Write the C-alpha cells for this entry.
Amino acid sequence: MKAMMKFGLALAVIVLISGRSVTHAQGTDLPTLLFYNAATGEALDGNIFDDGFTAAHRYPPGSFATGWTHIAADGFGGQIFYNSATGEAADGDFNTADHSFTTRHYYPPGSFGAGWTHVIGDLGTLLFYNSQLGSALQGYLDPGGGGWVTSHFYRPGSFATGWTHVVTDCTGNLFFHGGNLLFYNSSNGAAADGYINNLGVFQTNNSYPPGSFATGWTHIAADGGTFETPASLMFYNAANGQAADGFISGRFQTVHDYPPGSFSTGWTHLAGVSGGLPYYNSSDGSGADGAIDPDAGFITVHTYAPGTFDLGWTHLANMGCY
C-alpha cells in the first residue's frame, strides 16, 4: 500500500479502478483544473486524460489580475475570483469557441466586503464565510449573464467561528438541495455539516465536538464520485503524509485511514474533480492523481516527476465537481 501511495501530482478526471475507465474525451471538454499565480497573474488550465494531464491553455503573466486570494466554481460553469484584502472580485467562464477562460464581470474594491476567509461553490450557489466573525454571504452568478446576485446574508455569530476548512462533498441534487458542506477546525478536531436547503438557506445537520476528527489536517477535498462510486472526502496532512477518507450519509463516516507516511509529504495543493483527486507541490513542480475506490481505498493513477509542472502556482482550483 505504501509504495502505491507515494506519489507525485495529480489532475485527475480519469479513473482506472478494477478495470473501469472514466475519462474525458480529449479535445472536447472544458478544462477542469486551473493553476493560478497570484503574484504574476499567470495561469494554466487543462484536463487529465488516459495518458495523464494535458494542458489546454497557458495564460501569460498579466492575463489575470494579481492578488486573488480565493477561486471558486459555482458548479454550473461559472468561476469567481475574490481578493479578501480589498473586497474586489471578478467572474467568468470557459467560452464555447476555444474553451479558454473569458472574464464576464469585474467588481471593484469593496463590492464584496473584505475579510472573507473561505469561498465555497456548490450547485449554483457560492458561500463566503468569515471564520473570525461567524458571518457569511450567499449568492449566485445570474445564469442570464447579469453577474453576481446576493441571496442571503448571515449575521456575525450565525456560524461558529474558527473553522479552518470548508468544503462541499459534491452530492447536490437540483430536485432536493445542495451538496453537504463540511466545516472543520484543524486545531481541535471539531466539525459540523449541513447544506443549503430548497428554501435557499443553510441548514446545519450535524455538529461534531472537539476530538471527533483528527487534528492537523492541512487539506480536504472531494473526489466527486462517478456513476459507479460514491462521492468521498479526502483528508490529508502535508507534514506527515497521513490521510483518511469518508463520506456524509446522515452523519460523516470514516471509511479508510492511512497512517503517517502513506502519502508523500509536502503537497501544497489538493483539489477535487469528478472522480479524481489531484495533488501538486509548488516547491518542486511534482504531482500525482488518483481516486478513492470504496473497497481498496485511494489508488494512484498518474505520477508526475519534479519539474513536470511550473513551480510557484499559488492556487490549484477545480472548475466544478458536478
